[in-house]
Each structure stands twice: as C-alpha cells, then as structure tokens.
Specification:
Blueprint: H1 2-14, E1 23-28, H2 33-48, E2 52-57, H3 62-74, E3 81-85, H4 91-95, H5 103-109, H6 111-114, H7 119-123, E4 125-126, E5 129-130, E6 132-134, E7 142-146, H8 147-153, H9 161-173, E8 177-179, H10 185-200, H11 202-209, H12 214-217, H13 220-235, H14 244-252, E9 256-260, H15 265-271, E10 280-284, E11 292-293, E12 297-300, H16 307-321, H17 323-333, H18 349-359, E13 363-364, H19 367-370, H20 373-388, H21 394-406
Parallel strand pairs: 1-2, 1-3, 8-9, 11-13
Antiparallel strand pairs: 3-12, 4-5, 6-12, 7-9, 7-10
Helix pairs in contact: 1-5, 1-16, 2-15, 2-17, 8-9, 10-11, 10-13, 10-20, 13-21, 20-21
C-alpha cells in the first residue's frame, strides 16, 4: 500500500495537464555535441509532459557558467531550474533561502529508497531538507585511448598508466600527442585528482580530501603523484587546444594517444559514431585502481513568487529522477544513472565497466562533495601554474598543495 501511495503521488507530480503547462528557463553548461544530445533528452521529456523547457545553455565550462548562474539568482533574476554539481557549490544559496525545498517531491518518489549511492541525495540535503534532484553519476576516474593512434604508432594498446607512459616515445615518433589536455583550469586539476587516486590510492585521497590531512599531502605517496603529474605535463606539452571536447576529438581522430577525462567524454565518442572496444578503449582508475568517483550533476530550483512556476519546478524535479528519463539521458550522456532499478542493457562496454564498479561498491565521493569551492579554486590555480610552467618542480608544487590542504575548509 505504501508503494502504491508513492507511485500515485509521483504520478501527480510528474503529470502536467494543459491547464497547468508552464514555461521554465533551464540553465546549464552542456554545450558540446555529446552534451547537447543528452540535454535534448531532458527537454523532450519535459515538453512531452505538457510543460515547456526554455533552454538556457551557457557556453563554456562549469567554471564559466556557475558565476553567471549564481549572480542571476543573487541579483533577483532567477531561472526556473539550473544545473550545478551536487555538493557544496550551492551551500550559500541554500543558507540565504534562495533555493526551493523539494523534500515533498523526494518523499513522494521515495528517493531515499532508490538513489544509489545515497551520498548523492545527502549532497542535496541540508538540515534534513532536499534542495536538488540528482540526474547522474559522473566519474573523473578514466583514461580514454585511441585504437587508431596506437595502430599508427605500431604499439600495443596500454592496459595501465605505466604502460601508457612507456608508450609515449613511440607515439611521439609517429607524430602523435601522447596525452591530450585542454587549457581550462578544471581539466588539469581534474586529471591530477585521477592520477592521485590511481598512484597513491583511495586511502591517501580520503586522508587529504576528506580529513584534510596536510602531512599526508606532503608525504612520500603524494610525491609519487606529483612526479607522475610532471610526466603527464611533459606528455601533454603539444596539446594546443582549449576545450575538453577538443582534446577528446584529438583522441577520436587518432591525433592523440589518450586523454584523462570524466565519463562525459563518452558522449563525444558516441556522436562521432565510435564504438567502445573497437575504436577506443577506457581504463577506469588508469588501469591501476579500478574505482569511480560518484560526483555528477543535479538540478536546483531557485525560489519563485509564482505558485504555478513552483509547481512546474517540482514536476521537473520528479521527471528527472523517473526511470525513463534516467535511461534515455544517461545513455546519451555517457554517465551512470542514479538509480539501480532500471534497465541499462543498452549500455556500451565502458559504461558496463562503470556499472560493475558501482555495483561492487568500489567508489569515492567527488571533490566537489568534500572540498569547498574556495579550496577547489586554489587547487585549480596551482595546477594551472604547474601544468603551464615546466620549470616548476614536482616538489615545489607539492609543498604549495600541502599548504592549501592545511588551510582547507
């Protein structure tokens, strides 16, 4: 009886009659080819329900879009809904009372029973109230490898980070870029985090990112990470592109051997018509520590004065977590769904690897869930300096990193 009640309540929240149809402006930073194909699935579902999705795409990365989104909300020009990464990015907006409490939607759909891992919902919850709808799990912990690049270089496809590093000279001799890397700060910072988990291991990562242990950050295990990052810097020296998807395209076209990037890269491979296991390979945890981080995207709903808009916001929140939308969106996005009770049999080989790791519970939280935006920004700034200055030693970078962690909030 309890389940029937929940289903009826959820249906009432999702269903929008012609009389209640409402336009909602939805802001996000999904503008690459793969991302646009994925966000179209959300818009199609919302429009089919009777409401209207007004797309408010913001060109650039999250680092570009978030200040614009937050400024609009603070300035009294709120959108109907907005993408952010679930975690600590919206803390101040929630504290200021500027984001809609959607606890009633979460309870009606039984989110606490279906969202996996539950840390995703916990990241949307402040003082027991829910303020966002998670839509996916995006893991940074991947390297993507080009079959064409390795075939052209006459080198076997690497199965781990050490083999990848060893293959770099042959790739360069064949005119390839060993490691594709865009110039946006979050890319080098994210790649560093992936290298840290792979080389130092999950326990070291937790000690630094969760416990804020500066001694571990300054210790020998992280010294190995910074040396590996210096190798990565050298391998990416000729990767002269800006955006992450431009770097992904270097792998797709065989101009680069690999790219350390989150699983959203899969959307670009799909749009290009490439097949996992045939045209490209994917190594979770760089083939060293097979683990995934469970960050991702969520939608928040700025407070509105119009009750009809608020009703539409809650209908959208319910729709985003529905089984049908979870399947269609995540298959297009390359991300993992937030619920484990749906049919993902159409997933490709790389997504299946991620689903298996998730099912096995070998997961980590995402840095956005453990570090404040200020601390994350400081690490990004350090990584930009380190990545772009070959004269900056691994030891010097590590010393600055340990200081940041010592003062982390």
């Amino acid at each position: 009886m309890k389940l029937t009640t929940k289903l009826l309540a959820a249906t009432a929240l999702v269903g929008a009659s012609a009389a209640s149809a409402t336009e909602l402006e939805v802001t996000h930073w999904w503008t690459s080819g793969g991302e646009a194909a994925a966000v179209a699935k959300l818009a199609e579902a919302f429009n089919a329900s009777g409401d209207t999705w007004i797309d408010g795409a913001i060109a650039g990365s999250g680092g570009t879009a978030r200040p614009i989104i937050i400024s609009r909300i603070l300035g009294g020009d709120p959108m109907g809904a907005t993408q952010l990464n679930h975690g600590r990015q919206a803390e101040e907006l929630i504290e200021a009372g500027l984001l809609l409490d959607i606890t009633d939607v979460a309870e009606a759909q039984g989110w606490r029973d279906i969202i996996n891992p539950i840390s995703l919902l916990d990241s949307c919850t402040v003082d027991g109230r829910v303020y966002c709808a998670p839509v996916n799990i995006h893991s940074w912990q991947w390297i993507w490898l080009s079959h064409k690049a390795y075939a052209d270089a006459g080198v076997a496809m690497p199965t781990n980070w050490d083999e990848f590093v060893a293959s770099a000279p042959a790739l360069e001799a064949a005119g390839k870029i060993p490691l594709a890397m865009g110039q946006q700060p979050w890319q080098s910072s994210g790649a560093f985090g992936v290298i840290a988990v792979a080389i130092a291991g999950p326990d070291v990562w937790k000690a630094i990112n969760i416990d804020k242990n500066a001694e571990v950050a300054a210790g020998p295990e992280m010294a190995k990470v910074f040396e590996a990052a210096a190798n990565a810097r050298a391998m990416a020296a000729n990767s002269n592109v800006q955006d992450w998807n431009q770097a992904t395209n270097l792998v797709i076209t065989g101009q680069a051997g690999g790219q350390i990037m989150g699983d959203w890269a899969q959307g670009e491979f799909q749009v290009a018509g490439q097949v996992a296991g045939v045209d490209y390979e994917c190594l979770p945890g760089l083939g060293v520590n097979e683990i995934i981080s469970t960050g991702g995207d969520a939608f928040y709903f700025p407070v509105q004065s119009d009750p009809e808009v608020e009703a539409a916001q809650k209908r959208l929140a319910a729709l985003l977590v529905s089984p049908e939308v979870q399947v269609s969106f995540n298959l297009a996005k390359g991300s993992l769904p937030i619920r484990g009770d749906i049919d993902m049999s159409a997933a490709n080989d790389c997504m299946r690897k991620g689903l298996a790791i998730l099912a096995g519970g070998n997961i980590l939280p995402d840095g956005n869930q453990t570090l404040s935006p200020d601390t994350s920004g400081q690490i990004e700034d350090l990584m930009v300096e380190f990545w772009n200055d070959p004269n900056m030693s691994a030891a010097d970078a590590q010393a600055q990193y340990a200081e940041i962690i010592a003062n982390a909030d």
